[in-house]
Amino acid sequence: MERIGVVLCSGCGIGEALDMEALRGVAEEAGATVLTHPCLCSEEGLAAIRSALDSGEADALVLAGCSPRAQRHLFRFDPEKTVVERLALREMVTWTHPPGDEDTQALAEDLVRMAVAKVEAGKLPVRLQEEIEDAVLVVGGGLAGMEAALAAAGMGHDVVLVEAADRLGGALAGPPVHLPLAPPYDRPQPSRIPGLVEEVKAAGKIHVATSSRIVRITGQPGQFHVTVRGPEGEVELDVGAIVQATGARPYDASRLGHLGYGAFPDVITARELDLMLAEGRLARPSDGKAPQRIAFVQCAGSRDPEHLPYCSGECCAVTMRQILQVSRDHPEVETCVLYRDIRTPGQLEHLYQAAQEGAGAFFLKACVNGVTGNGNGRLTVRFEDSLLPGVEAMEADLVVLAVGMVPNSADGEAIRELHDAQHRAEHGESEVQKEEAQKIAEQLAHHEGTEILNLDYRQGPDLPVLRYNFPDSHYICFPYETRRTGIYAAGAVRAPMDPAQAVEDAWGAALKAVQCIEAARRGEAVHPRSGDLGVPELFLQRCTQCKRCTEECPFGTLNEDVDGTPQLNPLRCRHCGICMGACPERIISFPDYSVDAVSRQIGAIEVPEEDEEKPRILAFLCENDAYPALDAAAQLRRTWNPWVRIIPVRCLGSVNIVWIADALSRGIDGIILIGCTYGEDYQCHYIRGSELANTRLGNVQETLDRLALESDRIRLVELAHDEFQRIPGILDEFAESIGELEPNPYKGF
Ligand code: SF4
Ligand code: SF4
To answer: N or C: which end of the chain has fewer CB within 10 A?
Structure first.
């Protein structure tokens, strides 16, 4: 931008703490026109800003006053007409550093120079204006799928509901009763499935395709092109968003040999008991006799590192339901539950109480370690760590295993293998290698259950999964969202859950799908930078086809052409900037966030001479967690070292290594990157951003060696949003450690 205006607010004590005239001089020297106002958030202050914009004096503004996180509703301007940068003089300077101090003043002056440099490098974004499809595709016609379809149709969207089986209903289609979905929650309820199937058929806006599979999905949110193969052949359709509700299946009980499954016919699964009860009978498979005592073994395979390390979410409640059914229809049968913990969350506690009190079931906390025959036709259930001292076994006529659930997602390992094989097939060194990889790719491409969506994405045909194969993207902040924009997961495929949770999930995912269609129509980013306009621009004339961007984009936004040149699908993009951080050629940028803009901010920092003994420290703070944490610390008037210059970044993954080299060669003494926790329980909004930054920092060593600088000058710290008490100390401690080093010898260059 060319005409930069700086509006300095002297309210909230800023005017008393800083030399405002000097600050004005700094902004003018940087080429901006300057206005000082005693209270920018007042009616008069806002009118002054509007008049500066309307007069055409400025096409970009730095509003230097309170934090960009404060008074957001007041400081809203049309992003297509004006570049506005809010500079937190109050939080980052005057509330957190001593008033009237020369270091405090130097900090404020640097921040003003940096903000001017940033908006100078900025451009106005261009809003995407694309034809957007309104329809929603729902994959999976079980409880969650049908609920999601009804939810989307209820919001006025056409829905295509694709089910692989020959009828709707999914895993819950069999049993005539369910876990309760409505008060009083203390008894089984008639299955909701038959009614739901009728509702779906009557909905009008829902087109159901049973015995059908997705063969291919191309495109991007708002513009997905889907090929469905069904009994009538292939059908092509266009949809705006997708909900995957492919449910879960019981864990393979044949792997639970230690619990007697397979060896003794009277050891059955909860599902098998359901089938029996649905037929109105209760009999031992071995001899057809009615059991006198049934032992229910909880966590059969679940919460077991050898099988399913997670809790399967609904098995305890299913056992309670079955106990109530048995006690109602076969009151003479004794029921006993061997459990590690009973997990019946929410309203299902009422069901638990009913099983304990009404049905008179016997509950014993114990860890079952084996089921064997006792020689008299009965079974012996052995356990340890029982609450009844000295009791280590019990006899039963029927043992029911509460087997856990496995998501019907793509198999993460197989997907990765397929993807790698395809990549080697296309890019392998030798013909033999290529042929070999081609064979693997062909084999895996037909791997049953591997492909559900068959996405035509560079990063693989299905939703990437978290550990244990659940395809969620961020279990803390963004339920339903997956790592493929516009595709949402709902129900037991997303996480182990009971039917009530699956219904809630379906509505959540349908709402997300509709939101996504609407955001795409407005040309705006979806979560987490909701409303953001600028998509990445790639200056492909200088692209070396290194594939870093296509490989590192967490959301599969970039495909590749045959030469390996990235192809942007802008509506898939979440605007994180990770591709920008990855690109060694520095040819990826956003209108308001670019390698150049940050390099200019670094260049705007005044680095004191060596003999002044005032080190300069650059801090890259993730805008989602670390920066808000520092802002929260400022609200509490916590203080930190004034040598630190902060640059908020969209994600640590967007930090391009060139910024580190730039800063070091300008004489900056230390660089700290503060971002989200990474690893399995990552918190990064962009999945692997901080982890990627950490990996890239490994390569900075070369730069440090070349400049003969110590590696202690660079540090990456993981920090969560709520750790605001910690962050000032992190900055202070880093500043102290940098103060102990010799000054960066590149000062003055
Ligand atoms: S900005 Fe993020 S989501 Fe968009 S292409 Fe780059 S890495 Fe992918
Ligand atoms: S990272 Fe940069 S140079 Fe490499 S493929 Fe992507 S755009 Fe091209």
So the answer is: C
